[in-house]
């Protein structure tokens, strides 16, 4: 009896033994990003004293915040199997609409913000509808949207203002309250934390809960993993993907609103090229380019890596051109690590 008891208590013979701590960590898509963030944090903490100062921390958090807001939304979309190349330009489009209505049409800032939000959600819904209706790759559809918005931004801004910039929103009615929501600063010691950092944290928390705790989150993984299979089990694929495109548009509105309220001016070409940084941050955070796998927490950490690296290079007094080399190496490494982690996660889940 004693021998039998000892044999049955061996880990390999326990039918209800849970997975090991290592296996539980391996299945987390954000593990690679967390390790990378730790390396970057330690590296710049050692080589420059300014990095860990209150002002330094506030600076790289500020740098990462708007990128993080967009990266979280883009991560949800990528997990759902799609891309949005119009996300960067959307930040400028919404800011321009808000500024032109408030400054040149004399509207209350809050009404202008509501109109720009409606515009963003409409464009996002249109992107999703066209992708699902036509079957065209979202890369192509949103590239068209990107070009259209870029042309509208430049053309309409020059038509209304005679320049490619809109400024002067601080004198508009309703700016004080809107500015508090989107551009307030909180002093913590010597550090000044921007409102965009708060938006980043709150939206990341909401997105993480939606992704892992709700039926809609399951739908996102399902349509990203296999659209045909998702439809076969009753997942509302069209509604899910349209809502995901609307989510990236909403994030663009939040970032655009933070920018225009904080800086009080916006350029018509603002945001161009940033869409690739959003995608890279999501990939660094554990999202696969093929969909069905990823983490919004990881995307937020990916944005944090961007902020720490970009400002760390400045604090170290290096040539900022090296950041692009870092970005390229980071992207390639992340893709390789993510593929390896996904294969290991699949073996663990079996």
From TrEMBL:
This is Xylose transport system permease protein XylH. PANTHER family: ABC TRANSPORTER PERMEASE PROTEIN YPHD-RELATED-RELATED, XYLOSE TRANSPORT SYSTEM PERMEASE PROTEIN XYLH. It comes from Nocardia puris. It is a multi-pass membrane protein. GO terms for cellular component: plasma membrane. It is found in: Cell membrane. The keyword Protein biosynthesis does not apply. It holds the Pfam family BPD_transp_2.
